[in-house]
Amino acid sequence: MSRPEKHSLTLRGHRTSVSLEAEFWAAFRALARRRGLGINECAAAIDAARGDTGLATAIRLEVLRDLQGRAQ
After folding, report:
1. pLDDT value at residue 1
2. What span, in angstroms and rounded, lies between the C-alpha atoms of 38 and 44?
3. Which of 31, 32, 59, 72 sits at a 20 to 30 Å CA gap from 50?
4. 11 - beta bridge partners?
């Protein structure tokens, strides 16, 4: 596992930074591609549905759910 890397995203016109490990960034980019979305669009959808969870955690959980769903 690598150390978290900070990347900037734009969510509904606002810039924000998210720190994820390189492996999660790669899996998140792949998830966005499979959904036919850009990384910012995918992050915005996750952001809108996340409730009280932090954005980085919500992205990790969405990546995990996606991987689990494809493994079944």
Report:
1. 67
2. 10
3. 72
4. 14
CB 43 within 8 A of CB 27: no
- For range 26-44, the mean pLDDT: 97
Q: What is the mean pLDDT of residues 52-67?
A: 96
The parent domain of residue 14 ranges over 4-71
Global pTM value? 0.93
Place of tokens 């759910």: 65
Tokens of 4: 């978290």
For residues 27 and 41, the answer to whether their CB atoms sit within 8 Å is: no
Residue (of 16, 7, 1, 34) closest to 62 by Cα position? 34
Number of domains in the chain: 1
